[in-house]
Design brief:
heterodimer; A: mainly alpha; B: 4 helices
């Protein structure tokens, strides 16, 4: 079960990180126009957070399902280190964007 | 329900998620240190995911209101640093959802001794992200509530 969870976490973090820079088509909501659409970029008051979460959740669930079926033989500690490394890359990326403003 | 009522409910459920994730992390560390807490880990296997998903749904429900009335009408002109800080909080919260749910399910269902420290590490990371997201959320809300 831990392998399954770790695969899901790693895939979630990877998809969440790559959706923006790779401009993957995702669900975008414009609260001003109350309009839902699929787009690669956002403009004006449009928000991509819902779409990023949906994409990452789908990737995480798919990876978890695959790991549950395959039952990888990688040691749990190695799988955990890999998953947390992807999460750390996400945090460093977003932290660097936070510092860009100053 | 008004956005302000949803914001209060989001905050209450946010603290429920925060404490559930923190409890889970503490029990996971105790289990890894050789003091098994199977019943507690099985209890938090559903409490922590339920709390974090409920607060996330409410957060998503008030996000459009924040985007228009707080960010577009105030922060974009007067406080761009707060915009970035809020976005950082949202990213931490998103990662925390995956970490807390993953650690809760693994901690409750996996009885292997080799999984205990990895589950504790993932659970502690998720709880730390939730604490950071909660504190940033409170700071931004104190600057301009919905």
């Amino acid at each position: 079960m831990t392998h399954t969870a770790l695969a899901g976490i790693a895939a979630f973090a990877l998809a969440y990180l790559l959706a923006g820079p790779l401009e993957l088509p995702i669900l975008v909501y414009d609260p001003a126009a109350k309009l839902l659409s699929v787009s690669r970029t956002v403009t004006g008051t449009s928000m991509r957070y819902f779409g990023d979460l949906l994409l990452a959740s789908a990737a995480g669930l798919a990876a978890a399902a695959a790991a549950y079926r395959v039952r990888p033989r990688v040691p749990v500690a190695v799988a955990a280190a890999a998953a947390l490394s992807v999460v750390a890359v996400d945090v460093l990326f977003y932290f660097s964007r936070l510092l860009e403003v100053r | 329900m008004s956005d302000r009522a949803l914001l209060i409910a989001h905050a209450v459920l946010g603290f429920a998620a925060l404490f559930a994730a923190t409890h889970h992390a503490a029990y996971a560390v105790l289990a890894a240190a050789g003091r098994p807490r199977r019943r507690a880990l099985r209890r938090f296997m559903w409490i922590a995911p339920a709390a974090i998903l409920a607060q996330a749904v409410l957060g998503l429900a008030i996000y459009p209101g924040y985007r228009i009335r707080v960010r577009a009408m105030d922060f974009d002109q007067t406080a761009p640093a707060l915009v970035r800080l809020f976005e950082f909080k949202e990213h931490l919260a998103a990662l925390a959802i995956a970490l807390v749910i993953g650690a809760s399910l693994a901690g409750g269902m996996d009885r292997g001794a080799g999984s205990r420290w990895p589950v504790a590490a993932v659970s502690c990371t998720g709880a730390a992200f939730l604490w950071a997201a909660a504190l940033i959320g409170l700071y931004v809300t104190a600057s301009h509530p919905l």
